[in-house]
Amino acid sequence: EPEVTQTPSHQVTQMGQEVILRCVPISNHLYFYWYRQILGQKVEFLVSFYNNEISEKSEIFDDQFSVERPDGSNFTLKIRSTKLEDSAMYFCASSMGTGGRNKNIQYFGAGTRLSVL
Amino acid sequence: QKEVEQNSGPLSVPEGAIASLNCTYSDRGSQSFFWYRQYSGKSPELIMSIYSNGDKEDGRFTAQLNKASQYVSLLIRDSQPSDSATYLCAVNGRGKLQFGAGTQVVVTP
């Protein structure tokens, strides 16, 4: 069964360093998303991406964050200068569409645990 | 601020019993609603999607939607210890999912 894959599963970094989290969405999906979940808190939307452009972003997604689809399969989230409060699980998700029954179902990867020291 | 509200639990359910989970949402324009299951330290896993008022059944799971009351619920019949997890209600607004904080379900043998 097709799945969203994320690497690495765990990333440890020093405060102020840049990190890149990688995702391979499901192959026939067109919409890609990043969410984060701070330990013990709810899953929060960061950004959605379609046709090589950001569709929507939350107020969390500030200038320190960027997303890119560098090739036909990968979708990345970059944090330029990590802060302690960026420590969280980061989930990538993908969907076939955004409207219509079942096409807008978002499937999640296993996540990357980011630990900022 | 658009909100999705759930009781945090824990909801303790004897094995074999029915677990009933509730969710309310504030955005009256929402059209798509989802229940995800999340085991500790894992990612959200889709359990049910529902788009129309009424009930939708899939195996031991039944989702119920009432758009007029802005209310979504999930019933888990014949609860099993493997159902012990946090259940997340999610509402789709313009492509992004807004999640509730989740209800922790504990199924006791």
Brief overview:
The complex is a heterodimer of chains A (117) and B (109). Chain A is mostly beta strands and 117 residues long.
Describe the protein.
The complex is a heterodimer of chains A (117) and B (109). With 117 residues, chain A is mainly beta. In chain A, 0% of the residues lie in helices and 48% in strands. Chain A has no helices and eleven strands. In chain A, strands 2, 4, 5, 6, 9, 10 and 11 form a seven-stranded mixed beta sheet that branches. Chain B is mainly β. In chain B, 0% of the residues lie in helices and 58% in strands. Chain B is built from no helices and eleven strands. In chain B, the strands form two sheets. In chain B, strands 2, 4, 5, 9, 10 and 11 form a six-stranded mixed beta sheet that branches. In chain B, strands 1-3-8-7-6 form a five-stranded antiparallel beta sheet, with no helix packed on it. In chain B, a hairpin with a 6-residue loop joins strand 4 and strand 5. Chain B is globular, with a radius of gyration of 13 Å. Classes of the chains: A mainly beta (117), B mainly beta (109). Chains A and B meet through strand 4, strand 5, strand 9 and strand 10 of A and strand 4, strand 5, strand 9 and strand 10 of B.
- Rg for CA atoms of chain B: 13 Å
How much helix is in the residues of chain A? Answer: under 10%
Beta-strand percentage range of chain B:
over 45%
Radius of gyration of chain A: 14 Å
Mind sketching the topology for me?
The complex is a heterodimer of chains A (117) and B (109).
Chain A: E1 5-7, E2 10-13, E3 19-24, E4 31-37, E5 44-50, E6 53-57, E7 65-68, E8 75-79, E9 88-95, E10 107-108, E11 112-116
Parallel strand pairs in A: 2-11
Antiparallel strand pairs in A: 1-3, 3-8, 4-5, 4-9, 5-6, 7-8, 9-10, 9-11
Chain B: E1 4-6, E2 11-14, E3 19-25, E4 32-38, E5 45-50, E6 54-58, E7 61-66, E8 71-76, E9 85-93, E10 96-99, E11 103-108
